[in-house]
Amino acid sequence: MSLPSDFTWGFATASYQIEGATEKDGRGPSIWDTFCKIPGKIADKSDGSVACDSYNRTAEDIALLKQLGSKCYRFSLSWSRVIPIGGRNDPVNQAGLDHYRKFVDDLLDAGIEPFITLYHWDLPDGLEKRYGGLLNRTEFPLDYENYARVVFKAIPKCKNWITFNEPWCSSILGYSSGFFAPGHTSDRKKSPVGDSAREPWIVGHNLLLAHGRAVKVYREEFKPTDKGQIGITLNGDGVYPWDPEDPADVEAADRKIEFAISWFADPIYFGKYPDSMRKQLGDRLPEFTDEERALVKGSNDFYGMNHYTANYVKHKTTQPEEDDFLGNLETLFESKKGENIGEETQSFWLRPNPLGFRNLINWLSKRYGYPNIYVTENGTSIKGENDMPKEQILQDSFRTKYFRDYAKAMAEAVSEDGCNVKGYMAWSLMDNFEWAEGYETRFGCCYVDYENGQVRTPKESAKEMKGIFDALIK
Ligand code: PNW
């Protein structure tokens, strides 16, 4: 069991979760700045205004990456630092753009390969206010295309581009459950606006169009000279039928992946939505025009995979609810036989199950023709970590075991099953703003002391990562 010699590995973060400095150097507000101000949305009433202060500590973060042996680093850009209001006729903020250009130069000088995510959920609030942000099928893709072009032009040295992080989360958590910004949902106790039956599917469609536009621009205007690669990052969990003897559960397990992943990946690889989704959602799922289909089909140079956990899947026998987004099924932590999927963590949705990772890599590889895969996120929270004494947090045996087991499962998918995984980025370089969970849930391989000047200290998992990969890479 091994990984090829050119395999790259490192750590990942996202702008709003680590940068802070939300009002510095001309940055405009994003929908997360606005969302955090609404009472009741963030568990500990916090926001990203200081976070890990990474905007002011780029040298420190690069030194940390170097110390840990990281070969690559995935981070995201704050669109509203680059174009404060966001639109294609709005002014570009040179200071914001220069900051990221220098960061890339400095990473390369340190021998670390940058992976830039253009969009990790922090839409400029100006676009939300101007035309409803991601809900706008014509304006949003055009403004995103312009933003992408501005960035491609300014940072030709970056060779790895991710258009969107987890469009599933933007669509479902932003427009169905309302758990994430901008918080739309049909539940009027939670939000005065939203239509969970329709908006998530519209948003998903518009994200695909914007992705397609940015990829077209990169391929036509930049790739011939810059020679980089571009793709989207999708999230999805491993699946096991609740009752493997029941064909309806076996089918439901596949359908679960189709509703989570193939929703985006099928249009990108095949130019159409999965039949299972069309069947359940009917005309609530938008249709591609011929022009849109041509734009989206074939628009991945690589597949970005975010992966954390697995579930047992049980089919439902009732008609799907209007706001169902799972595919008319239940997800469970226990199988019919009483097997448990994995240990509890601090995140209600996350329980470690490394075999689910290997299985899903195989499922995706088979369906999409063995594409190059970069695992752009994988990691875990730990039950009660935030309340542990610092020494115990730094010991970090649960997280270290998680990474060891998941890296091994991935290496098996590569060397035993023939899947083409080319790189791996652990989530996350450091503890950070965990969205609606605030700072109480920690996902970092490095501990961040929020009470004492945001000092970073590597936990055991951060220190072990190099050893884990050195042992696997040929
Ligand atoms: C990912 N869920 O989000 C994100 O890309 C990161 O920004 C985030 O910090 C990380 O995972 C850990 O949560 C997810 O509810 C958030 O299933 C929620 C879910 C999945 C992924």
TrEMBL record:
GO molecular function: cellobiose glucosidase activity
Keyword Hydrolase: yes
Reactions it catalyzes: Hydrolysis of terminal, non-reducing beta-D-glucosyl residues with release of beta-D-glucose
Keyword Secreted: no
Enzyme Commission no: 3.2.1.21
Entry keywords, A to Z: Glycosidase, Hydrolase
SUPFAM superfamilies for this protein: (Trans)glycosidases
GO biological process per UniProt: cellulose catabolic process
InterPro entries xref list: GH, GH_1_N_CS, Glyco_hydro_1
Function as written in the Swiss-Prot or TrEMBL entry: Plays an important role in cellulose degradation. Shows hydrolytic activity against several glycosidic compounds.
UniProt family annotation: Belongs to the glycosyl hydrolase 1 family.
The protein, known as: beta-glucosidase
Organism: Pseudomassariella vexata
